[in-house]
Amino acid sequence: MLPSEYIQKGWCKGEVARDEDGGRSDYADIDAVSWCCIGALLAAADEGAITNRQSDTMERYIENQLIEGIADWNDAQESAEPIIAMLQEAEKSIGLNP
């Protein structure tokens, strides 16, 4: 899955990923059901949907669009839509998600 698809599946705040009970989870854990923006980038790279270099490039792209850090921006959102939109923009910037 691409990073934006992870967020479409489930989005969280305050942790890189969460399980179905809302508890802390590792982004690559089989029990993870929601991810933050950074967690989605890490999970997509971990599964091989994108390379680590693409993940780093996307992270830099997102950081350049924001005033605050990615984690703070993610946690300040009220819904997943801005996260999905930003990740889709970042995916397009590296030739994914046309």
How would you describe the overall organization of this protein?
This protein is mainly α and 98 residues long. It has one domain. Helix content is 53%, strand content 9%. The protein is built from 5 helices and 3 strands. Strands 2-1-3 form a 3-stranded antiparallel sheet. Strand 1 and strand 2 (24-25) form a beta hairpin. Helix 1 (3-9) packs antiparallel against helix 5 (81-93) and helix 3 crosses helix 5. The longest helix is centred in the middle third of the chain and has 14 residues, at 52-65. The mean pLDDT is 96.
Brief descriptors of the model:
three-stranded antiparallel β-sheet; 98 residues; 5 helices; mainly alpha
Major sheet: 3 strands, antiparallel
The residue ranges in which pLDDT falls below 50 over 5 or more consecutive positions are none
Beta-strand portion reads 5-15%
What count of helical segments does DSSP give? 5
- The strands making up the biggest β-sheet line up spatially as 2-1-3
What string, H for helix and E for strand, traces the elements in order? HEEEHHHH
Assembly state (oligomeric) = single chain
Tally the structural domains.
Answer: 1
Radius of gyration: 12 Å
Q: State the distance separating the first and last CA atoms.
A: 15 Å
Shape descriptor reads globular
Number of strands: 3
Class per helix and strand makeup: mainly alpha
Q: What is the helix fraction of residues, given as a range?
A: 40-55%
- Integer average pLDDT: 96
